[in-house]
Write a structure and sequence with these properties.
The chain is 30% helix and 25% strand. The chain is of the alpha+beta class and 142 residues long.
Length: 142
């Protein structure tokens, strides 16, 4: 798949209402649901199903669950390019628990409760400070 296809798919989710644990475009999604939905659109079946999780799952578990899953199914990369999957920590010293998809080096699509929907926004300094890891979808080409 090409990076432009990832960007097109991610942008098609903008406006999807925020709904914890959901992953259906135009119906509802959370940040993980957005990435899961883009995966299904571009690659087919998900490689593993996400278990039920609470909004406080990362704090409750205290493990890098999201980062570990990303390591299993995505390809770690260094640069932020269109189509790069971005993992964030809400605060320093806590497990990564937010994810989005870059649509350009300075912009990304993500879903979070505070916005109430999936949005495209600037990868501003506050987001860059929280960046925990970057990944490419498997098989991505330029």
């Amino acid at each position: 798949m090409r990076r432009s296809e990832i960007v097109e798919a991610a942008r098609s989710w903008v406006g999807t209402p925020y709904l914890h644990q959901a992953s259906l475009r135009a119906v509802g999604c959370d940040c993980l649901g957005l990435v899961r939905g883009v995966w299904r659109e571009l690659l087919g079946s998900e490689p593993e199903m996400a278990p039920p999780y609470s909004p406080e799952w990362a704090e409750a578990v205290g493990r890098e669950t999201l980062l570990e899953a990303a390591e299993r199914h995505f390809v770690r990369c260094e640069d932020i390019r269109a189509g790069t999957v971005l993992l964030f920590r809400w605060t320093a010293g806590t497990p990564a628990k937010h994810v989005g998809i870059a649509v350009a080096p300075e912009r990304f699509v993500h879903a979070y409760d505070g916005a109430g929907r999936a949005v495209e926004g600037a990868l501003a300094p506050m987001w860059r400070r929280r960046l925990a890891a970057t990944f490419d979808f498997p098989g991505v080409t330029d």
